Amino acid sequence: MATDRTMASNTMVVILAAGKGTRMGRNDMAKVCFEIDGIPAINRTIATFQKLGFENFMLTIGDKAEQVLETVKAINPSCLYVYQQPQLGTGHAAKLAAEALEKMNFQGNVIVTLGDKFIESAAVEMLAEGFIKQQADLSLLTIPKGKKDESAGRVFADKTGQIIDIIEKVDIARQSIADELSEKIKKHQHISPELLVQIINKFMPSTKKQAVAVPQLLALAKTPNKIESSALQKVLSLGQYNIEIAGKKFTAEEIETCCKGVNPSLYMFRHKAFYHGTSLIDNNNAQKEYYLTDIVRQLSSVKIENTQKYKVRAVHIANTNYIQGFNSPDELLGIQDYVRRQKLKADKTSNASTQPVLKSSQYCTVRQWLDKLDSRKSSLTQWLNHIYGKNEQLHKEKLSSLKKVLTCYGKNFGFDHKVCIVRAPGRINLMGRHVDHRGGYNNFLALDRETIVVAGLRDDNNVTAVNVMPQKFKSVRFNISELIGRFAWGDWLNFVNSDWVRTMLHSAAGNWGNYIKAAILRLQHRFTDIKVGGMNLAFCGDVPIAAGLSSSSTIVVATLQAAIALNNFDLTSQQFIDLCGEGEWFVGSRGGAGDHAAIYLGQRGKIAQVRNLPFKVEKIIDAPKDYQVIIANSHIKAAKSEAAKHTFNAKIASYNLGLALLKLRCPQIAEMVEYLRDINPENLACTTSDIYRLMQKVPQFLTRAELSSLLGAKHRQLLETNFASHKDPGKYNIRGILLFGICEIARSKRCLEYLEAGRIDEFGNLMKISHNGDRVSCCLPDGKYHKLKPACDDDYINRLISDLSSEDPQRVLKAQLYYQPGEYGCSTEEIDKMVDIAVAVDGVAGAQIAGAGLGGCIMILAEKRCVDKVKNALIKHYYRPAGLKPAVLPCITTEGAGLAEF
Q: Looking at the whole model, is its pTM more than 0.70?
């Protein structure tokens, strides 16, 4: 349907754009100004309405109001503005807009939406059509319930089609808690506090939401013994635990059954309904905020002579992609991916899919790229500043690298070939080692040391890769179809575990080309119905090799991103990161995708905390301004040789088999534990002491024969798969490795709280404890380093349990999970010595091993004034006595991986 232009021109579009968007992690950017495919979200929304004939716009602005004004001015200089201060919710913003319009005596229709939306024209057209056909006073768009819109409010209609309420997800979660508790107390006179906490966590995992939504139940959960049903019933009789709609009570299940659609926040009002409805919105809720969704209930409740005064109707659309919102970086990335996929589809219908769909600023001949570098236009300077910050010396280094790798490509493949340039920075993981594949957390910085690849499309299925250092990195050539065609399409893990792959890797151990193959073969394995086009590739890089900074992962990320760009594949960011992690299995490792996530999603001057399995950006914060992260290379190569891989994979096997054994011996937790991440007091509704008691259920050490006997035939496949990945180490330190993982996850989850609060010393202490979990040696009074003995025996566990019950604050604190190192044991004596040297320097908060271990680098967090002291101490006590070249690098943070664009 084409929108009625007369109606559109007489309609005011109100866009609520005052919110802070703290979860986006950018203090310098208004939420509505984040770009979707190069266009600020707010401008994209305005442009969508303008295309349909809407001319009148009013924005409520508040946070970073000037930035929003400047952004919108470019597309609509005549836009009206209402300033919201303080920001008291969407309902408050709508009230201010209504008051302004009423004073203007505006008497047209009013459309209301939020500025943090991506809206397709079809959504607006269908809303307007429904509004006209239904002759409604208020029409609101609804979309089907789904995972993407899990948190959206449920739209409740009566039998006549009148929308009488919008039930927020948090209210349904609270009702679910109340419903389950009501069933429990029907059968039992009392319940345990642990069960109460478990039920609360089941429906409302967020502790912040719990504190606001169910404070009375949380208070009951502190009852030392059992909770009497009468006490629980008293709480459950309170109004907030009983959803009532139009005088009738509903269970959460009944609401979910009745509500077929959810509210994506696109409304169309007659002006009288808008003015009256907003005047009725109040802040009688726990948050003391005004919610726009309350307008539905308020308007539906207005009656004249027992007849509803206002007609409130839903306009349902089936395609959830027509209107999408974002509250976090990963949700914005999802919208970006959708827009990109739509553009690719449009290009394919116009027969443009055989060539890369890239802008001229991203894709041109080698000669043109070199001319751009020589001309030093403003677009190049802007790109350099955006990626690396305003650092002239670093800019010179990067320009030199770009010229070098472009020239390398030109000499090998031709200067008139069209190419793209991809950069992939090294990364440092400040906290969360060895736990990404356990569902744990990582806390990342992207570094200025990076891999740069120049990539051009071939007209066949071959891949040829060269390097600016041909003596060190010999050229790589392979045919994609020949490699992947040796096996029928099936499970990727079976492919990488095959004898053929193992034999090939054994004959080419340490060959840099294996990482190029890893990326491309994983991509081809993912898209079984499309032939991945061959590529010519030229590489250069300055990420220290085998130093724990993920030099190999930068090759995987850069190669995969080049292949996707040149072949026009449509991968979401989640899929991209997963494919990188899984792709690296090809070279024999069995780690997760945490390194690749850091390389891909890094932000300059920021620390990103991500959760794994499923991947989610939890928060992004500013790096401490007065502190410097320093990298120091031990010169002990953490090469992914056969021996190193066997050690790494034995640790992974200890995780997998240890968790299986724990669940077998503790069936009461089996249903609640999918990943090691799930073993924590909050999820299991237990005490920290109970976690330690669980550890005692698992023997400290086990052989392969003992593991096979204990796990039995039921776990035969698990045993075979894990044993196949490495040589028999003799004994597996099952308990020590499980304890490390559980405690490292606890550390990596809470560590950014310390940085945000300026408690740098406490963060540094966690770094030291974390390193002790990998430590293999310590310095004794004789000044020599001696091998550590395993310490996670029953006596150690019993001491922790005793400390927790001691009521001595210091003993209790030191017995917390995040204070326990566990025993992963992937450091070296040299690394341990370097860490000890660094932490002895005044002004150093903490230090620990970087990366997977068995050599490589350490990371140090120190006050900026102490950088030279740290460097001198390491030279004096480590590099000079060992006859090694000093390699101490203060880190410069950069943006994550991406295509060059200038």
A: no
